[in-house]
Amino acid sequence: MAARSLRLQSAVVLFAFVLLIFLLTAVILAFLPQDLSDLEGRNQDAKATGKSRNITRVLSNAAEKGIEVTLTEEELNQWLANQINGIQEGPLKDIVSYRGIWIRLKDGSLDLIFEREAFNRPHTIAMNVEIEQLLEEQNQVTSSIHWRGGRLGQMPVTQGYLRLVLNGYRELADVMSPEVDSLKSLLEGRTVVTLKESSITFTPREIGNSIESVSSF
Questions:
Q1: What's the CA gap between 112 and 119, in Å, rounded?
Q2: How far apart are CA 79 and CA 69, in angstroms?
Q3: Considering the chain, what is the average pLDDT of its residues?
Q4: Minimal CA–CA distance to 86: which of 180, 6, 174?
Q5: How far is the C-alpha of 34 from the C-alpha of 57, rounded, in Å?
Q6: Contact 126, 38 (CB under 8 A)
Q7: Computed over its alpha carbons, how large is the radius of gyration of the chain?
Q8: pLDDT in tens, 144-158
Q9: How far is 186 from 62, CA to CA, in rounded Å?
Q10: Count of CB atoms within 10 A of residue 152's CB?
Q11: For residue 207, what are the contacts with CB-CB under 8 A and spacing of at least 6?
Q12: CA distances, 216 to each of 15, 84, 107, 144 (Å)
């Protein structure tokens, strides 16, 4: 009986040790920022590398006139850096400051990244977004947006964890309401969205290729 009790205690200690290592690793990864040096349109000082086209006007024209338009990661990030001036509020405003909002375009999805500075060190929060599109009758395209989790620093997290930071993304949508309205018009119509690494293209269905379904974003 004593031997069994000793083995049980050893197992509990081992489990607690492994759990502690896991939690420490998760905390460290959460506070280590992800590498943003590959983002086009952002320099090492978290500033824009230049000015882009007027994205608001480009999206509005695409929605109203039904024209094809391609936007690059570089000009999207340049535009965001020049247009969005974030202000950190709340109980952490004295130790946390805003650095930028960025987009990383991938094949089939994109990351929306908040970059902040805390205790003189950069910190990142990223949310991954996908859009699934299905072709229906009369070339109508139905789009569904999916949030696929993201990263707190370098630590991958599920969608549930990102509920803690959803307010920041909602505030971004409010600030960008003209662009969001144009995107809604595009996605609710006959526009096929093709997302590749470093670029996103909006193609009216009338000049698009014949397809049965499209997976974008």
A1: 23
A2: 16
A3: 79
A4: 174
A5: 32
A6: no
A7: 22
A8: 888 888 888 888 888
A9: 8
A10: 22
A11: 68
A12: 43, 26, 8, 10
Q: What is the pLDDT of residue 86?
A: 62
Query: Distance between alpha carbon 9 and the CA centroid of its chain, in Å?
Result: 45
Sites in the chain below the pLDDT cut of 70: 1-15, 17-31, 86-95, 138, 161-162, 164, 206-217
Name the nearest CA neighbour of 102 among 127, 66, 137: 127
Q: Within a 10 A sphere around the Cβ of 37, how many other Cβ atoms? A: 7
SS3 content of the chain, % helix, strand, coil (to 5): 40, 35, 30
Cβ proximity of 176 and 95 under 8 Å: no
Beta carbons within 8 Å of 155's beta carbon, 6+ residues apart: 26, 29, 30
Give domain limits for the chain: 32-216
Find residue 144's DSSP bridge partners.
Answer: 132
Tokens of 41: 């349109």
Burial of 9 (0-12, 13-18, 19+ CB in 10 A): exposed
Find the length of the chain: 217
The phi and psi torsions of 6 (rounded to 5 degrees) equal -65, -40
CA-nearest of 153, 130, 122 to 162 is: 153
- The whole-number pLDDT of residue 73 equals 96
Q: Give the three-state DSSP class for 84.
A: coil
Question: What pLDDT is attached to residue 76?
Answer: 94
